[in-house]
Design a protein that fits this description.
The protein has 454 residues and is an alpha/beta fold. It has two domains: 161 residues, Aspartate Aminotransferase, domain 1; 264 residues, Aspartate Aminotransferase, domain 2, CATH 3.40.640.10. 37% of the residues lie in helices and 17% in strands. Strands 4-10-9-8-7-5-6 form a seven-stranded mixed beta sheet, sandwiched between helices. It is globular and about 55 Å long.
C-alpha cells in the first residue's frame, strides 16, 4: 500500500513544495476516514492505530461531532475572542472546569495547540509566582515552539540546532522502569526521581526561584513510559511543600486515552494546572489550560489570548467530544480494549525475542524493541522494518521513544474488537517477518524481571 499512482504523484509534489523537516511516517496520503479506518488517495484502507497522534479518540467522522461542527459553521465561524467572545467559548470553558480534577475554583483558557497551551501555562505560573525557573523531565515532549522545545527532554529530532533555547529551564530524570539505572530496584525508582528534584534545589536552582514543575502523567513521545505509582504523589507533596505549582501535561494522555478521562485521576492527586489539546477538538485545532482560579487570574487583561484561540467551530466540536466520551463510556471501553491488547502483546514476549518490554495504561499501549535483551540495545532499524511491514499491510502505526525503538498503539476508543484483533494480527505478522539474523537476539534469552506497568 502507499505506492498507488495518486500517492506517487503527490509524493513528487510534496518533495517539490514541502520542507524536509515536515516529515510523515507513512508514504501514503490520506483522503478520508471513518470510525477506526483511514483511506488513502488510491483507495487503500488502513486500520488506524495512530489516530492522528491521539487526536481522534472518538474515531473519524463521529456523527455527533460532525453534526456539531456543521451546526456551528452555519451560525458563526469566527468572531475573535479578543474582539467579541463566542458564547460557545464560555460554555466549553465551564465544561472543562467541571470535568478536570480538583474540587476548587477553576478557570480555563482556550488556545490552538498543545505547544501553545504549554507556553501559556508557563506564562501563567511565572506571573502568578513572580519566579523565573521551570523544571521538566528527561525524555519528555511538550511541543516545538521555543519554550515547549526547551522543556522537551529529547534532542533529536525536536531540538536540533534550533537554539539558543529559553533560559531558566532545568531537567531531571523521569522514572523509566525498563531503563532504570543499574543496581536500582523498581520499587525505589519513583522516589529517587522525586529526590532528584530536591537535589536540584540544593545544587542548581533554589525552590524559591521555581515557578512550576511540568510533567506528563505518562510520557507520550518518550515511549509510553508509565511511572511507578509513588512518583506523581511524591511530586505533588514536594510541590505543595515548596509552594510550586504542579502542571500536568495531558495533551496526549487526556480524553479517555488511559482508561479515565484524564490520566492524572489514577494517581489520586490534583494538579494546579492541566494542559489539554489533541483529542479535545475532535480533529480541529484546539487546546486549553485549566487550573486554579488564583493562578489563572494572575495575568493582566490582554496578557493571554490570541486571534484563533477558542474558535467557535472547534469549541462546538469539543463540547460534542466530551459528551460522546461520557455518554458512550469510551474511557472505560478504552481500558478494556487496552487490557486486551496488552494481554496479547505480552504473549509475544515469549515468542519474539526482539520484544524487550510491553507496557501501557488503558488504551495507551506500547512495546519496546531491542536487539539484545541482556544489554537492552535499542532495535532502531528493526523498528523501522516493523513499521514498513505494517504500513504495507494496512495498519497505520507510529513509533516513539528516546531511541525511536518503541511501537506505540493509539487506536480510536470506538474501534471494534474485530478491528483491534486484525490490527494486532498484522503487527504480530510483522514481528515474524522482519529479519533478525544480523542482531544478537537469541530466543533463549530470558525476559528481564520487572514490575508490570499498571
Amino acid at each position: 500500500m502507499g505506492e498507488g499512482p495518486k500517492s506517487k504523484e503527490l509524493q513528487a509534489e510534496r518533495d517539490r513544495y514541502l520542507p524536509r523537516g515536515m516529515a510523515s511516517t507513512m508514504p501514503a496520503f490520506a483522503a478520508s476516514g471513518s470510525g477506526a479506518t483511514l483511506t488513502d488517495v488510491d483507495g487503500n484502507s488502513y486500520i488506524d492505530f495512530a489516530t492522528g497522534i491521539s487526536v481522534m479518540n472518538v474515531g473519524h467522522g463521529h456523527p455527533r461531532v460532525v453534526g456539531a461542527i456543521r451546526a456551528q459553521v452555519e451560525r458563526l465561524v469566527h468572531s475573535g475572542g479578543p474582539v467579541m467572545l463566542p458564547e460557545v467559548y464560555v460554555r466549553l470553558a465551564r465544561r472543562l472546569c467541571e470535568i478536570t480534577p480538583g474540587a476548587f475554583p477553576k478557570k480555563a483558557l482556550l488556545l490552538n495547540s498543545g505547544a501553545e497551551a504549554v507556553e501559556n501555562a508557563i506564562k501563567i505560573v511565572r506571573q502568578a509566582t513572580g519566579r523565573p525557573a521551570v523544571i521538566s523531565f528527561h525524555n519528555s515532549f511538550h511541543g516545538r515552539t521555543l519554550m515547549a522545545m526547551t522543556l522537551t527532554g529529547k534532542v533529536s529530532p525536536y531540538r536540533q540546532n534550533f537554539g539558543p533555547y529559553a533560559p531558566e529551564v532545568y531537567q531531571v530524570p523521569y522514572p523509566y522502569e525498563y531503563r532504570r539505572p543499574a543496581g536500582m530496584t523498581a520499587e525505589s525508582l519513583g522516589g529517587s526521581c522525586v529526590e532528584a528534584v530536591r537535589q536540584l534545589f540544593k545544587t542548581t536552582v533554589p525552590a524559591e526561584r521555581v515557578a512550576g514543575i511540568l510533567v506528563e502523567p505518562v510520557q507520550g513521545e518518550g515511549g509510553f513510559v508509565v511511572p511507578p505509582p509513588d512518583f506523581l504523589p511524591g511530586l505533588r507533596t514536594l510541590c505543595t511543600e515548596n509552594q510550586i505549582p504542579l502542571i500536568i501535561d495531558e495533551v496526549q494522555t487526556g480524553f479517555g486515552r488511559t482508561g479515565t478521562m484524564f490520566a492524572i485521576e489514577q494517581s489520586g492527586i490534583d494538579p494546579d494546572l492541566i494542559v489539554l489539546a489533541k483529542s479535545l477538538g475532535g480533529g480541529l485545532p484546539l487546546a486549553a489550560v485549566v487550573g486554579r482560579s488564583e493562578l489563572m487570574d494572575a495575568a493582566d487583561p490582554g496578557g493571554l489570548g490570541g486571534t484563533f484561540g477558542g474558535n467557535p467551530v472547534a469549541c462546538a466540536a469539543a463540547l460534542a467530544v466530551i459528551e460522546v466520551l461520557i455518554d458512550e463510556k469510551l474511557p472505560q471501553r478504552g481500558k478494556r480494549l487496552g487490557d486486551r491488547a496488552l494481554a496479547r502483546m505480552r504473549g509475544w514476549e515469549d515468542r519474539h525475542p526482539i520484544v524487550g518490554d510491553v507496557r501501557g495504561l488503558g488504551a495507551m499501549v506500547a512495546m519496546e524493541l531491542v536487539t539484545d535483551r541482556a544489554t537492552r540495545e535499542p532495535a532502531g532499524t528493526l523498528t523501522n522494518d516493523v513499521l514498513r511491514y505494517c504500513h504495507a499491510h494496512g495498519l497505520a502505526l507510529l513509533k516513539a521513544g528516546l531511541y525511536d525503538n518503541v511501537i506505540r498503539l493509539l487506536f480510536p476508543l470506538v474501534i471494534s474488537e474485530q478491528e483491534l484483533d486484525r490490527g494486532l494480527d498484522i503487527l504480530e505478522e510483522a514481528l515474524s517477518a522482519v529479519p533478525t539474523s544480523g542482531s544478537s537476539v537469541a530466543s533463549s534469552t530470558p525476559r528481564p524481571s520487572r514490575v508490570r506497568s499498571r
